[in-house]
Predict the 3D structure of the following.
Amino acid sequence: LYNRRVRDFKVSDSFLTFFIKICNMILIRFQSGNACREMKEVTGMMIREQLELRETEILSPYASFSRESRGREREEEECDIRPVFQRDRDRILHSKAFRRLRQKTQVFLQPMGDHYRTRLTHTLEVSQNARTIAKALRLNEDLVEAIALGHDLGHTPFGHAGERALNEVCELGFKHNEQSVRVVEVLEKQGKGLNLTWEVRDGIRNHKSSGRPATLEGKLVQLSDKIAYINHDIDDAVRGGILKEEDLPSEYTDILGHSSKARLNRMVHDVITQSMDRPEIHMSDEVWKAMRGLRQYLFEHVYLNPVAKGEEAKVMHMITNLYHIYMEKPELMPEQFLNMLENGTASREQIACDYIAGMTDSYAVHTFEEYFIPKCWKN
Ligand code: MG
């Protein structure tokens, strides 16, 4: 009957097709809306529980399993959809400190080009490299991503110049990895912190060369950080005219490759083949030594190059003076920081560092101008 009617009435044909499509869409919506509840009814498990179970089926025995996490400082009700590390990743992504990374220096101070790396794009490249390797090694990609996205949250404005300035002026010292932990434990959410799992905080705290992360995922981010910055800092240095590809020592590039793409590819493949089905994250001796050599070359020719670092003395001057003014007049800081001072939950030195380290490059310049540069007289 339907076919005959369609043959007889061409307009009805298109109308009926449209009607059936709409019905299908409504049905799909209804089904997905109830997916979580239905799945629990059918299998007796929530989506999170199914994902946790899937981890035990898919991941390497050396991976960190979400259901075996050492947990959070404050107990919380579990999410019905996301396992703990996935949830931590989302918390970091939605944090204010993460958004501020887009206006923080990676290597080149306030570069005038749109294509230089910032602390945010560096972070994303670390995450991308680490996730590629984690997937190949069947490690926990959510944990890797959470550690990678959080590892530089505590970085000062103006990169390592800013870090050096705070470290010199503050008698407590300053390290960006420890500050990253402070951001997620204390400073975010108006002093409540993000209450992340132990594994994510351990990976963030230990991401520097001197650190010893407890998980393979933490070790992978530690290595991926180096792989990322060595490759993208060369790319930016070439872009900035500080060096040419041909300047790089051939003893290293003959091993690693003669372009950023080739070197990144070589390093990532090397980590995967050397670490497959092993309880360690490894590189071959040959690639490791070449990578270390290239890193040393970067220190001598890029990080300490007077062209790239010509403005660093000004950064040191600015950060040092900001520190002194907040030590003398803490009332200039926002309420959250004053509350910490009044409650006695942190020292004045720590709070001044907290506030300055959280600034973006542009905000630090603006604040310095506000306090130390005379304003134009306006009628
Ligand atoms: Mg980093």
